[in-house]
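Q: What would this chain look like folded?
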Amino acid sequence: MDVKGMRVYENGMSGIPHQNSMIPGTGERQTGFDELLQEKAKVGLNFSKHAAKRLGERGISVDNQLMSDLEHAVEGARKKGAKDVAIIGAQGVFIVNVPNNMVVTTMGQQDMKERVFTNIDSAVLL
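A: My prediction, written as structure tokens:
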């Protein structure tokens, strides 16, 4: 079943209502499935357990500026249709699954020598 246009209601029920439909008796507009996905995407990046472990092992510190740069890079990649992106910067490389907003692994500058990146469809330079 195609989920495009699916609506999710507060009571947990789902359906395919008319566009711009309202929740009966509340005067509130229903949130579309696509809209919920977009809102979820804007929450920010998460780091997988593997990526968090690699950050510690490789001495990569993530401050607010780096997080902002990574989130901006992911948003740019998302607009271009990327699914898995390598974000390359001075701190290292961050491999991000764009649809899930998940950093799946990281590499420091020292780890990048003679490395091959597979299973990515895009790269962003910071």
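Residues 46-125 form one domain.
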